[in-house]
Structures are given as C-alpha cells and as structure tokens.
Amino acid sequence: MQSLQNILDYVIFTVGDYSLKVSMIVKILLIIIITRLLVYVIKRMLFRRTEVDEHEKGNIQAIYQIIRYIVWIITFGLVLETMGIKVTLLLAGSAALLVGIGLGLQQTFNDVISGIILLTERSIKINDVLEIDGNVVKIQTIGIRTSKGLNTDDISIIIPNSLITTSKVINWSHQNDKTRFRIDVGVAYGSNVDDVIRILEESAFEHPDVYDRELTQGRLMGFGSSSLDFQLLFFSKNTFGIGSVKSDIRRIIVKKFDENDIVIAFPQLDVYIKPNEPAFK
C-alpha cells in the first residue's frame, strides 16, 4: 500500500512551484473515462427508441449534441482544476489575451454561436432539405461550428453555421413532408388549350413520386410573344431528388405532345424586305 502511495506521489516534472504528480494523471484519466461513459449512457438513453420519424430523430440528435458539448466543457474545467490550475483566475488573468484571440477568431466564434442557435432553436434539423445560395442540400449533421450536407450530386458539403443563420435559406421540409413544384412550358399559338392542360396533368399523374392527383393542376399563365405559356403544379415527397422527377415528367410531356401534334413554341421573327427604290425619280 505504501508503495502504491509512493507511485501516486511521484513527481513527473516540476516548473517553479508547480509539480505534476502521477496521481494527477490518474485522476485526469478517470475523469475522461467517466465522461466518455456518461456521454455513452446519455446517447443510449436518448436513442433507445427505434420507431421514431426523421423529424423527431433530428430533434433528439440536436439535444444530444448540446448535452455532449456541455459535459465536455465541464470536464475540461475539472481537468484544469485537477492539474492545480484555477479556471477563474486563469480567465481573469488572460482577459486581454482572450480579447485578442476573439478578434482574430471572430468568424470562428460567429460560426460557434450560430451552431448553438441552430441546435437550440431547431429551425434546421437533420434530414431537412435546404436551398442555400441556389444549392439544394440535405443536412446530415449539425455541429458546433459547421454542418455537413449532401447535395444533389451526392457530394458532401461542409457549411459554416453562420452561413445558414445569416443568409436567406429555404427549408423545403420544415412544415410538411411534401412540397409543391412547378414546370413551365410554352406551346405554339393555335394549340388546343384544354388538350394541353389535360396532357400536362396526365404527365404528372404517370410519375410515381407525384403525391396527389387532386392537387395537380395545369394552368394557362399568359400570352407570350411567341407562345401560349402554361404551368404544371404538383406536389411531391421526393424533395431532394426533385430534379430527376421534373426531368422524367418533362420527357413524358414531350412524348405526349408529339402524339397529339402539339408543338413546343420557340421564338419566331418575321422579316419584311422592301425592294430597293431609286433615290431620285
């Protein structure tokens, strides 16, 4: 027993009045191990339910992230106290240094604060489909400084959290699991309007990702300079893959237009050439 106490009291190194003992290292390792076990237990408790929808899963993930960061911050303070470093005195003595670091890492702190806002406010959740600066991204993880998303080309994108909180962001899946989309098309003058609307709606009906027939609608939107302008409105749950859905529906529209002799309009210009006349008679 005395030998164990001697080992724990063994001084690894000394700097001035400060000495780092083996007992301190053991306590630090125990604190880290206990923290990891605590975080693991919290995660198991939060995710113990298997039958949860995607929105609830995103909420649970956000709560877990917040708890994990708080636990590790407390652990960091305990480690410093175990090493004999007073956290309060350290913060008070390094106030000027922290101001300088804060100015240099202003954008990083901005991202961190934005991450805390996202995790607490939960306006953006895991698996939400966002449109940011014209890019459609499906959120996979929300971190304290950055979030990771997957774009429509299956490429992972690292997004600074401040970009989400300060930019205009369209959340396609915030309120409903289905979203309304539109396809615009112009046909030649002289086409039968009723036939065009019927074909547009039937083209949408044929696609399996279109949500509801009753909510699908073809409209005559206006009279263009070279075309009758129509719009097809439909709802789909496949928000993230809507590019492929629209492409498939357009292909069906083109095929049905060909079968019914309906011409997709293109700009036309009539040119009249006057014959040359003598300048003097």
From TrEMBL:
Keyword Transmembrane helix: yes
Membrane topology, as annotated: Multi-pass membrane protein
Protein name as it appears in the record: Mechanosensitive ion channel-like protein
Primary localisation category: membrane
Compartment list: Cell membrane
PANTHER family referenced in this protein's UniProt entry, alphabetically: MECHANOSENSITIVE CHANNEL MSCK (PTHR30347:SF1), POTASSIUM CHANNEL RELATED (PTHR30347)
High-level lineage: Bacteria, Pseudomonadati, Bacteroidota, Flavobacteriia, Flavobacteriales
Keyword presence, Protease: no
TM spans (from-to): 20-42
Domain Mechanosensitive ion channel MscS residue range list: 108-174
Keywords recorded for this protein, A-Z: Cell membrane, Membrane, Transmembrane, Transmembrane helix
GO CC annotation: plasma membrane
Any single Pfam family the record assigns to this protein: MS_channel_2nd
Residue ranges of every copy of the Mechanosensitive ion channel MscS C-terminal domain listed in the record: 182-264
InterPro entries noted in UniProt: LSM_dom_sf, MS_channel_1st, MS_channel_C, MscS-like_channel, MscS_beta-dom_sf, MscS_channel_2nd, MscS_channel_C_sf, MscS_channel_TM-2
A GO molecular-function descriptor: mechanosensitive monoatomic ion channel activity
Family assignment from sequence similarity: Belongs to the MscS (TC 1.A.23) family.
Ranges for domain Mechanosensitive ion channel transmembrane helices 2/3: 65-106
